[in-house]
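User: Structure with glutathione, C-alpha cells only please.
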Amino acid sequence: MITFYGTGTAFDLPHASPFAIKTEILLKMAGVEYRTRRADLRKAPRGKLPWIDDDGTIVTDSRMIRHHLETAHGADFSGGYDAARLGIGLAVERLCEDHLYWFNVDNRWLRPENFAKGPAQFFKRVPAVLRPLVKARILARLRMALHGQGTGRLEAPEKAHLVGRAVDSISDIMGANDYLLGPDPCGADATLFGFLASVESPFFDTPYGAMVRGRENLVAYLDRMGGRFFPQ
Ligand SMILES: N[C@@H](CCC(=O)N[C@@H](CS)C(=O)NCC(=O)O)C(=O)O
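Assistant:
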C-alpha cells in the first residue's frame, strides 16, 4: 500500500500544491492502491512535498514518483502517444513546473491579500507568539528564492505578459484535443491539470485566472480533467 503525502483539499483545489495534484492524478492513472495523508513539511524527507512511502520505500519529488510508478508498478503514462508527441508533453510539463510555478508562488505568497486568505492558514498550528516571526522568515526566504530565480525582479505587467504567453501556448498546443496531446490523457495531463487549475483558481485575486478562462479549450479541459480524476 502506498501512502501519499500531500496537503489535502485547500483553496477550492484538491491540494494546495500543484505538484501534489499532479501526483494524486498519477496515482489514479497508475491504478495503484494508495491512502492520502496530510504532509507535515517539517517531516518531509527532502523538505518538500509531495512524497510517497511505498511499503517502506520513500520517494520524493513528483517526477521521481512518476518514475517509481513506472518502474516498480508497471504504470504506463504514455497514453499511447509517440515519442515526438510525448516530447511536447514533457516540454509543457516543464513549462508548468519551472515557469508557471514561480508566478503562482509569487501571486499566492507575496500578494498580501492572497497570502492572508491562503497560505497564512498553514501557520495556524504554530504557537500564536511565534507565528508572526515564522511567517516573516518564510516570506523572506520565498522573496529571496523568487529574486534568485528571477521572477521576483519583474514588474506586474511583465509577469502578466509572460503568464499570458505560456497559457496561450498551452491552449494552442492543445487545440481541439480533449486532452493535451490528443483524445486520451497521458502523464503530462497530470502536471498540466495541477498547474492550470492552480493558476485559474478563483479563490485567489489574480490576473492570471482570467487568462485561462479566456481560452475555451482550457476551460473545457479543466472541467473534463476535474470530472474524471476528482469527481467529488
Ligand atoms: N520538483 C518537486 C517540487 C516540489 C515543490 O516545490 N513543492 C513545494 C510545494 S508546492 C514545497 O514543498 N515547498 C516547500 C519548500 O520549498 O520549503 C516536485 O516535482 O515534487
